Amino acid sequence: MKKVSQILLSFGKDLSGFLLLIGFLILFFNIESFKNDQAGLSVPDVWLNVNTIFLSIVFEAIPFILLGVFVSALIQIYIKEDLIQRFLPKNAYAALLPAAILGAIFPICECAIVPIVRRLIKKGMPLHVGVVFLVAAPILNPIVAASTFFAFRTDLTVLYARMGLAFVLAIIIGAILYLVFKNRDQLKWTKEELVGRQVVLDIMPTKKMNRIKQTMYHASDEFFLMGKYLILGAFIAALFQTFLDRSVLQAIGSNEWSSTAVMMAFAFLLSLCSEADAFVAASFGSTFTTGSIIAFLVYGPMLDLKNTIMLFAFFKARFVLVFILVVTITVFVSVLTLQLLQIV
To answer: Please, which residues have CB within 8 angstroms of residue 317's CB and are 6 or more apart in sequence?
Structure first.
């Protein structure tokens, strides 16, 4: 009886989350109909703008979320814990370089990287190696390199600085996080993960699902788990993009220090996909310094509003706060250093 009640509770949570997700999307899809509603209800234009930005963020992110959850599901089904341990160097610091190189191979943006890294850590990947992959993959992958090239083809300094800085900082950030946390578990394990899912498996028929069905099961489960945090992050980012007075930030971005800080704040709040952020950054070229634009292009894929919400959902709060602090300081200091040395 207890097992059945746990299953019903888990199912109820999943169903309620799914219904809220569908209801929220239906509301936003049909918000235009309220503009000239016959009942006298009307939505201000500013909220229609929030709706437009929200949907653009969600539609831009969903394909990558789907990619992330399917890769995560494939890792769950096909990758064994001993395989990860076998291919990683035993020395903690020696494992940082292969992780950064691995990030340069896979076309994964910051929307998809959180579920993948979470699953890899659950499979036995050391925390600091996961951190390197978390911050490196959204920047170093080939699609981002190509988009940055086309956006800044008249000044390839931005491309070289973005890729080189991301590679070096990923290793530095991973090393710092290793010094702080070693390999202590920093994931949040839900009751359903520890108990509920096992209960479901215990009462299921003994006939095992084939691997394709298992992959689809894990992918759909992970998608709805990640989706609610994506929607929350996208909505908050849409609010910031609509109501944030950019002229004030541009006014204080008049020197190397303040312009770097302002562009990092832009990168965090706008929550752009790393595959497209270079074209937005190029539009700031006449207003902000080259160094601050590089800060925008490096900091945003490592840390933005929507993936911060995901991180808080799946990692312990202390780890996420330290991660935010380390990423922010290292990017800010490194970009200022490049500017002081007149490299950019």
So the answer is: none
DSSP H/E element including 202: helix 197-203
The encoded tokens of residue 211 equal 């691997």
3-state SS, residue 187: strand
Residues 169-225 have pLDDT tens digits of 999 999 999 999 988 889 987 665 555 444 444 444 444 557 788 888 777 877 776
Q: How far apart are CA 282 and CA 320, in angstroms?
A: 30
The dihedral of CA 204, 14, 184, 124: what is its sign?
Answer: positive
**Is residue 276 within 8 Å of residue 147, measured between CB atoms?**
yes
Tokens of 292: 């601050």
pLDDT tens per residue across span 73-85:
887 788 776 677 6
pTM to 2 decimals? 0.77
Q: In angstroms, how far is CA 105 from the centroid of its own chain? A: 17
How far, in Å, CA of 147 to CA of 301, rounded? 14
Count of other CB atoms within 10 angstroms of residue 322? 16
DSSP class of residue 34 equals G
Domain range spanning residue 112? 2-340
| Total of domains in the chain | 1
Largest Cα–Cα separation, the chain:
70
Give me the residue label for tokens 């832009």: 266
